[in-house]
Design goal:
Elements: E1 15-20, E2 25-31, H1 35-52, H2 57-73, H3 75-86, H4 90-114, E3 118-120, E4 126-134, E5 137-141, H5 149-160, E6 164-168, H6 174-186, E7 194-196, H7 204-209, E8 213-219, H8 222-234, E9 238-242, E10 247-251, H9 257-269, E11 279-285, H10 289-301, H11 321-336, E12 340-343, E13 358-361, H12 368-371, E14 378-384, H13 387-395, E15 399-400, E16 402-406, H14 410-420, E17 425-428, E18 443-444, E19 447-448, H15 453-457, E20 461-469
Parallel strand pairs: 5-6, 5-8, 6-7, 8-9, 10-11, 10-16, 11-14, 13-14, 16-17
Antiparallel strand pairs: 1-2, 3-4, 4-20, 9-19, 12-13, 15-18
Amino acid sequence: MPDSSALSTTGARPRLQAVNPATDQPGKSYDGHTREEALAAARRAHEAFREWRSAPFSERARRVRAAAAVLRDRKDEFAALMTAEMGKTLTDGRAEIEKCAANCDWFAEHAEGYLARRPADLGPGQKAFVTFNPLGVILAVMPWNFPFWQLFRFAAPTLMAGNAAVLKHASNVPGCALAIEGVFKDAGFPDGLFRALLIPSGDVNALIEDDSIAAVTLTGSVEAGRKVAEAAGRNLKKCVLELGGSDAYLVLDDADPEKAAKVAAAARMVNAGQSCVAGKRFIVHAKVREAFERAFVREMQAFTFGDPAQADTRFGPLVSVKARDEVHAQVRRSLEGGARRLAGGEIPERPGAWYPATVLTDVRPGQPAYDEEIFGPVAAVIEARDEAEAIEIANASSFGLGSGVLTQDLARGERIAAEALQAGMSFVNKNVGSDPRIPFGGVKHSGYGRECSEFGIHEFVNIKTVVVAQGDRERPSLPRVSPE
């Protein structure tokens, strides 16, 4: 995933300028925070954490449910803000806000159970259990493509666990960052417990190095992930990384081409193709390739772009003209390398960051459509001779976020998804998505750690062992060893 954050490291007060992707015209501008102000906010969050960590789950849940209510009450406002700053359609924006609210409700209901003490049996004479205690202030470095969801996906479980949080959002969505801070204020969270910091990415290291920050989570590019992981490692602080993806979908020889094409198009076109878990490589058995391509082109061409501020628009602009031009350059290089264009692939003559739904076939190694993540509405069709080669092609990627299997044999699809594909998530006959009930994350260059579910809330807690000797009745069930 591309990183749109500013790179200045001067420490001076930055000025953040929003730009409407549909018109390429400037929107509202914002005064940012100096490095000193950001550090002061992180230290204030640590002070707020010291009280919040002792708040009962009932109080935490009450505030998180209040945040869900604020989100629903202001859904149209927040959707319009996303449209103005990063080009998301109003329909998708409203759905994103509703998903954030549902995520808050889920963790308000289930966090106490996820974090309940767990007994361990060490035999007579010893009481043992595992407890889950908050760590402190978690720094979240977040991207622009789902500016509310990716933050709330992190924030709801983190705050329910008793932590505090500071947000460094992508520099092209400053209004979204401040609006999110406002949600927590309006929901009645303690002052300073959650702060949005309008700072350049060059100031992230100073935050990670500060004693007030306990851990860091980043969603963004591989390059950004490496930098944050390096800084966190130097300072011996936990980090969770959700990075790019080049999700492979296997279209097997027994797949229904029409049904497979519908799933594939929906997977590729989520958020105008600007999603780490959007389907990007469609590895198709030779037997069904021609039929799948015909159906796939038809489904992709049904995504005609329009004004993202109109309720009936399915497909809006990309995030910026620069990002659009980078996508087009990858398409052009792929064509020069031997790929064929079945649909799209040309920049329209109109202002703004517009790019059509595009399908490339005959995609092979050495082409960007095969080797790289294309963060836009471009689908790559890759032929495979059989199931084994399809799996091999899918796994021959540096990424490993999501993956899919399209087949009429559910047992076959389940086997491939569970055992064969090298990815953090594998879905059968549907497009990959995130859900608070199941873990979300990847392997290889797609990062490490998990968000959502019980696994996600455990990332930023101290998983602590407690053993209490109870008299002289101890009967160890394992041989004694030296303490270590």
